[in-house]
Amino acid sequence: MGKPKHYRPPGKKKEGNAARYVTRSQAIKILQVSLSDFRKLCIHKGVFPREPKKKVKGNHHTYYHLKDVMYILHDPLLEKFREIRAYQRKIKKAKAKTNDELAKLLLSRAPSYRLDMVIRDRIEMDFQPGGCIEPGEGYDKYCACCCTYIKYCTLLCEIVVF
């Protein structure tokens, strides 16, 4: 009868580096985003490429840990990026049909994303409660995160007020 359509030989992609690491192009396919959106997500979420012990696909690829990709996959920011991209297609379609009033209306209602939750998550990940911070080790990073969060919140308040 032959092999089934989705036949996987035993021991493939279940354990080892092939299961733990994915290339950048594989990560983009998993997340279903463009390269520019993937870069933005990685910067916002603090995900960096890693060096596996054995590079399965070759030495010239960029590898990401599968847990990091899954961390991005379940993020609400990813949904916002998809929503923004769909909205940009609507605007482009209205401009192509020379419907300027609709294009202006859509531009005024364009969705945006907020980074306050991302900043809060980054602070919580770096400084867990009950954790001991060595003197001088993490204070500069903590102060930088707090200042960024405060500046971001005041900027949002100014935008809302005016």
From TrEMBL:
Compartments, record wording: Nucleus
Keyword Cytoplasm: no
Residue ranges of coiled coil: 77-104
GO cellular component entries: PeBoW complex
Keywords assigned by UniProt, alphabetized: Coiled coil
Domain of life assignment: Eukaryota
GO molecular function, one term: RNA binding
Record has Nucleotide-binding as a keyword: no
Main location: nucleus
Listed GO biological process terms: maturation of LSU-rRNA from tricistronic rRNA transcript (SSU-rRNA, 5.8S rRNA, LSU-rRNA)
InterPro entries reported in the protein's UniProt record: PES
Pfam families: Pescadillo_N
UniProt-recorded name of the protein: Pescadillo homolog
